[in-house]
Amino acid sequence: MIAAWAWAVVLQLAVLAASCTSRAPDGGQGAEDESARLQKRLVELTWQEKTITAEYSLARTPAPYLIIDLAAHSIDLKAQARTFRSFKITDVRRSAPPDQAIDTWVLVSKKPFQKNERPKITPGAGDDAAAAAAKQALWGPHRMPSDYDLIFDGGKVLEIRALPSEQSGWRVGRAIASAYRRTVDWYRHWSASKDSQPQYTVQLWLTENDSQALFWSLPKQLSALVFDGGIVR
Fold it and tell me: How far is it, in rounded angstroms, from Cα 38 to Cα 34?
């Protein structure tokens, strides 16, 4: 499916390239506008062809992978070009300009900043304590950490940070909670050892629900295709 899509994009590129080169300038504003529109469309299709080609190498196998589009502020969990879950990025911060507009990262480890323990029943606590523990969900996205680092090969780190979801209270309360969480993250970076700083960091802020659901969805082995349409070359 993704191969056919790529061929369709290539054909559109060929048609547009021919249209752009065959138009002779006549000095009219309409011709200039049409030429600009075709050039813009050509750039869009060229970028689309590059991203599809890059994804094709991951989509050939059944293993899941992430598509992280920094320009579009989106994260997609996919397998064989099919999207299973999508997450919206609220804010993107980089430690340095990326080397490539399209790059594949391989997950090495996950580093959560919260420890979520399952409900425990103290011996001799009685039936009431056992009944209360039984009512709690033992597993699920809501029990996942909301702040964590995804450490990839080559010293690259994807920092996932959580902001309050819209369902978590009034707007003023969410604004205060967001400021607090950003302050906590700033202090975490400030107090960290300089020797432990990764070579390249991308920090993504998601809602709390999305950050927990993303951690819940991640398999142990994972590749991530990182797109940055803002530095197309």
Answer: 6
Residue after which a domain boundary falls, among 44, 60, 76: 60
Which tokens hold the place of 164? 């309050």
How much is the pLDDT for 115?
73
The owner of tokens 């590059």 is 50
The amino acid at 203: Q
Residue 126: CB partners within 8 Å, gap ≥ 6?
Answer: none
Flag whether the pTM goes above 0.90. Answer: no
Contacts for 183 with CB less than 8 Å, ≥ 6 apart: none
Q: What is the Cα 140 distance to its own chain's centre?
A: 21
Q: Looking at the structure, tell me whether residues 24 and 121 fall in a common domain.
A: no
In terms of domains, do 139 and 45 share one?
Answer: no
| pLDDT tens track for 149-161 | 999 998 899 999 9
Closest CA to 7 of 67, 51, 49: 49
Say yes or no to pLDDT of 57 above 80. Answer: yes
Residue 66: the pLDDT is: 96
Q: Cα dist. 115→77, 140, 141, 147 in Å?
A: 24, 14, 14, 11
Last residue of a domain, one of 40, 60, 80: 60
